[in-house]
Queue: 2 jobs
Job 1
Amino acid sequence: MANRSRRVVPAGLALVLVLVMAGCNANSQSTEPTKDKNTTALESVPQGGTLHYLSRRATESFETANAQMVPTSRLRWVHRGLTSWRTLPDKDTTLVPDLATDTGTTDDGGKTWTFTLQEGLKFSDGSPITGQDVKYGIERSFAPMFQGGLGYHKTLLVGGTDYDGPYDGKKLDSIEVVDDHKIVFHLTRPFGNWPWIVSMPAFAPVPAAADTEPETYGEHPVASGPYQVTSFRKGSQAVLDRNPNWKADTDQTRFAGPDKIVLDMGLNNDTIVQRLIDDKGEDETAISNALISPSQFQRIESDPSISGRMANSPSGYFRYLAMNVKRPGLSDVRVRQAINYAINKAELQSVYGGPKFGGRITSTIMTPGIPGYTAYNLYDGGDTGNVDKAKGLLAAAGVSDLKLTLTYPTDVSAIEEKEAQSIKNSLARVGVKVELKGLDGGTWSELVSSADGDYDMTTNGWGADFPSGMSSIQPLFASSEIGNGGGNASKFSNPEVDAAIDAAIAEPDLDKAAGMWAAIDKQIMEDAPVVPILVQYTQALAGSKILNYFIPAYPPFANELVVGVDR
């Protein structure tokens, strides 16, 4: 299937992706404040106050048709999905019903999925939320004007590849609305992760009658979540107030503490972080998506009053070195294994900020927090590498005087150049000469996603769109993802792995599928098409009056739906 996950690049050392929640009104129950910012249990938050969100984006939108945000993001202040994610600081993320009464049922092994909506749900305008609204919301995501969102459903729904949305009057028959509360999805193949897919932005309900200006609908959407957009100035500010028709007892994942949310757009990144560090006035109740620079980390770490407001991710993004197995110098598995032994991962870890802020050294493809993740190390060279083992494998392969190219993007951050230089130094220790080729991001992306890219190795990062080995492994290693914009940068193609991936994708028992993905992880690493380097951490800084603030193992940024304001 088509690749829908996304590459993760280092921009600074970490993400300050902290956000907050969605609201309730008379339906909510008063609770005592949670004083522990990095709480170890998911707790309710007090009602009231104003949450401020400081965004470095030129503009924000609450459009669902082309969004890539996970279900714990600010988009979900306004919109609900059929399912949602429950996160805890010390447990794996779980899937729970949202608009639906359960997480979906299938009676044919995962090819057909049925969901039933809760009774009595209403939009912010007072109209009922129906299966037809869910169907329309999904259909509009197929319109050409809404490209770039999370689009797993576009290749999975029968007829999806030939469908261009509802604006010409056409419907997608594979989304079957049985009645106001029952909706059935007909897929092209068995797909066990469909309950996760319906948590994605495109599955938010949209009443067709309100979609009179599709291009600007995201500025004034009809809300199904606890907040509604009451003011929107593009590129400047959005104001969200409580949705009076949202019912707390129908929602398992939103605490909806603040009475109001003010979202300021287009702010300077470093200025945002400095404002959060200074923690004055309204910034005491602020969160942000700004990136923290290394110099700012030093200031934060040196002051407990600031570091105590920073959440650290226990897991993160997969950072790795991809080796193009189609290239003559890397076609022998022993050469690729030698490179796995040669890399000084401790030095790379220091490039990213060290073990506290940069990330943990890894030897697997899946990361902690993804179901099925199992720690193992097929090429244990210690953190600094094993030169003798690497040289021995190169000699066994009959390789000497090996010359390789390593490409990387130059316009993302200085870290990628330092990362490439470190890899070059590691391989020089075992007699492999590396030529570095820095490219602008667009040229780099086109090169590594082509079928016959002229490069030997490239550095890369990856983040799963939902917690499954499918989202971690399939986009990077399935043969179908070679070329045409796919994410298989190592050009790895193994029929046995492809068959195992297809079987795991089709498995509707997600616990069983998790074990299958764990086996595939090791099966791929036996062929050594990549060198796993780091689980790249993220950090998030908040104002001193933000409550219930933590980053779970997955996704590696703060859950914006459970944060409160201490008044």
Job 2
Amino acid sequence: MKWLVRILFILVAAFGLVIGALLLMPGDKLGAILAEQVRAQTGRELTLSGDVRLSFWPVLGMETGPVTFGNASWAGPQPMLSANSLAVGVDASALLAGDLRIKRVLAEDPVLRLELSEGRGNWELTVAQSGATVPANEVGTPSAAEPGAITLDRLELTNARLIYVENGEIKMDFANVDLAARWPEIDAPMEMQASMSVPGGSAEVDLTIPDLPAFASGVVTPLELTMTAPGGDIGFSGRVNIAGEMDGKTRIKTSSTEQMLAAFGQGGVSVPYGLGQVANVSSQMTYTKDGRISLRGMSAVLDNNRFDGEADIVISDPPHLTARLNGGDLDLSQIAGTEATSTSTGGGSSAAAPVSEGWSNDPIDASALSLANGNIRLQANSIAVPGMTFGASDLTMSLDRSRAVLKMHPATLFSGQLNGQVVANNRNGLSVGGDLTATGINIQQALSTLGGIERLSGTGSGSLKFLGVGQTENQIMNSLSGSGSLDVESGVISGIDLDRLMGRGNVSGGTTVFNSLTASFTMDGGNLTNEDLLMTLKNYRADGKGRVGLGARDIDYLFTPVALRANSGEGIAVPVRIVGPWSDPSIRPDLTKVIEAAAEGKVKELEQDAKDKVLKKVGDELDTTITDSDQIEDALKSKLEEEAKKGLLKLFGGD
């Protein structure tokens, strides 16, 4: 036994001498030894600065000053990891059993740069890591801890910067991050908490990966994530892989969407009321590594509006959106940035919007047109927009670089059907235009809403092409150009009674019921011009022509009714001139036209009387009856021939 005791004594002494040598060795020498071992095992350069301190039991640990850990040879020149200080400790007894139980990893001011290119990650070391892939049992969960298993009791990064690079392009770059993580057992979930500074405050992240070994080996695994940021929070419960692809239930809830967008680098974005100043969105989400998001079974409550449907989003600048949505009664009346008094024009009732003295000069904020590109199909029971309300409608909105095209197939407006498109272009200043056809439109609702004109009512159809340019409502209305037509089957004009007008010349009060009304018009410089209005009534016909100032909100129009049964069917015309502002136009008979017409008729009567007398006198002289001036020449010729014959007979002795 003596030889055995001596051998043990020698081994203990040798081990003690090694430990003592290491403890007494200068820090730079220890750093050089560690760097050499890391290079041999991983192929990466490890640079340690300052003193290197070691501990051996019960924790085998190391503390250093500034440290850098090199990147993969195919990645960029920047190190994968750098820090002002680093402390690492492992369980010494577990290490003797073949397991790597990391007790602590503490780093101050670290910069962690993760890069992925062509399926390779710079976190994949050249040496095979024990326990990187853990066999799964029959139900897909990790098997019990085996030799070579890796666990983590405590990871802390203070004031860290996290960079993620994919195929040479920086996808994420977060600074001022505090991160803590733990993975105490091989079959326990990995839990991580992170906090980072963002505009307006800080963002807090809680993440749980139930099967870390499977995730690290590239297998799709479950993941739970919640993020709280200024203005709202995000939740995800589903599956994920190491490339960041996701599939699961997602929820986004905001108390201030603008504040939340600013927290993630989208400051200055103005979200109109009705499109989600406050939002609650949930959906089954799929995200792929090429930046595509698919939302199915989506439910979105944006302010007081609710949408259901599906959407596909391509992450870009700006994002590209394709969506199909269904809504109930939607309120988008403040989408232009100011609250508008809407008029109910989708159904049979109407409530006219108040008419002010002029169009608004407040600048129109059309920045929302640049938030995204794409196509959105929307079906809704009703849609309130500034100044009017659509009924049940099927619409498609196309967005392309601050230009929006709204197609209606069809839309319900002013109790009728509207087909065509409206365009809003904010690329180089704001312009609006459209090409529309309408059927079954309530004329009073339309004129009251669009121009504050309430005297004409009826049901009609028509067409309209228009273009307006300007940054305010006033500029647009004063620049309107285009053309159109109107066809009203029957209706009423209030404020004028043609029976009284034709009978006594009094136009104040009363109503006129007409059978049909047709007109075409052109627009230029904010003025609408019409030359061919025709209105038919039971006993009258009315013609009209004149100007309607769409920009100036005034009118100068001559309306001429004709009594068809008067004057032996020739008709009596009493023109009416409508002049003044829309809010209070003057309506009065145009007596100058009546006088001119009467005078013209008298002149014609005198001319005819003189003509009749001349024809009678000539007829008497020629001893014949002449009823037309064209007969005078023939009568004279006949008379001359007759006189010539008489003269010749006398000359030759005839009777």
